[in-house]
Automatic annotation (TrEMBL):
Domain HTH tetR-type: 51-110
PROSITE patterns documented for this protein: HTH_TETR_2
Source organism of the structure: Gordonia hydrophobica
Keywords for this protein: DNA-binding
Record bears the keyword Acetylation: no
DNA-binding region: 73-92
Short name of any one Pfam family annotated for the protein: TetR_N
Protein name: TetR/AcrR family transcriptional regulator
Classification via PANTHER family: HTH-TYPE TRANSCRIPTIONAL REGULATOR RUTR, TRANSCRIPTIONAL REGULATORY PROTEIN (PROBABLY ASNC-FAMILY)-RELATED
Gene3D superfamilies hit by this protein: Tetracycline Repressor, domain 2
Length: 255
């Protein structure tokens, strides 16, 4: 795959996709609180206050998790913020609801701005891939407690984390479509490839953050090797699975 700067249109598409999907995620998280106010018949008076208070408590929760660790309970979090647990339950249905709000804040204020910056940079393809992976790994490395509290929760209690991964995959899908189309390759598999790359990255990071047996740079290099090799193979086959299957890249012989 050649290494030209990212086209402006590709960067714009990636940024727009990320912004749209982030708004969808925000709507999903905020809907329960809005519905609760509506059912009480006081939406106009209390909706703004409720969202502002949730935002304050979410920010306080992030600080609590940073200080206390990802396994902090509602009692610990409330005590660190300086409120009663009853107050937390007034604005959040349970710990999963609180974690969902923290996930949204984490994605919006930390992960997504850095990823968008990497996607929008005027850099070549290989450097773009490595920079994007590096941003994600370094963000997690710099704040592992918040990451584990939000993104690395058990699968049954992490629907918002799954939506966050959908955001990343949507942004990557737009980038793959633009870059593959510019090379005359088929783009029908862009969603599959984007989802697979995001899934592999997030799973590897989850495993690593629980047991950091190597540096963030080493993990970035390993993920870059895998994903870049996949992209090169896809483009060489023109994005056509049948062409790829008819002439797959060959492993070197065993010495």
């Amino acid at each position: 795959m050649p290494n030209p700067p990212i086209p402006t249109s590709a960067a714009r598409a990636a940024v727009n996709a990320a912004a749209t999907l982030t708004r969808e995620l925000e709507q999903r998280v905020l809907t329960p609180a809005v519905e609760a106010v509506t059912s009480d018949g006081r939406k106009q008076r209390w909706e703004k206050h409720k969202q502002e208070r949730r935002a304050e408590l979410t920010t306080g929760t992030i600080a609590a998790v940073q200080a206390l660790g990802p396994d902090a309970g509602m009692d610990d979090i409330a005590r660190h913020i300086g409120v009663s647990k009853t107050v937390l339950y007034r604005y959040f249905a349970d710990k999963n609801d609180l974690a969902a709000a923290v996930t949204l804040a984490y994605v919006e204020t930390t992960i997504m701005p850095r990823l968008i910056e990497a996607l929008s940079g005027e850099i070549g393809d290989y450097k773009l891939v490595r920079a994007t992976i590096g941003v994600y790994v370094e963000t997690v490395s710099s704040d592992p407690n918040v990451y584990r509290f939000t993104m690395a929760r058990p699968s049954g209690s992490r629907p918002v984390a799954a939506d966050a991964e959908k955001i990343f995959a949507g942004a990557l899908e737009s980038t793959l479509e633009s870059r593959f189309a510019a090379r005359g390759a088929q783009t029908s598999g862009a969603r599959t490839w984007a989802s697979a790359m995001v899934g592999a990255t997030t799973r590897a990071v989850e495993e690593w953050v629980s047991s950091p047996d190597r540096s963030a740079q080493a993990l970035t290099d390993e993920l870059t090797m895998m994903i870049w090799s996949s992209l090169v193979g896809i483009v060489r086959a023109g994005g056509d699975p049948q062409a790829f299957a008819a002439d797959p890249p060959q492993l070197p012989p065993v010495p």
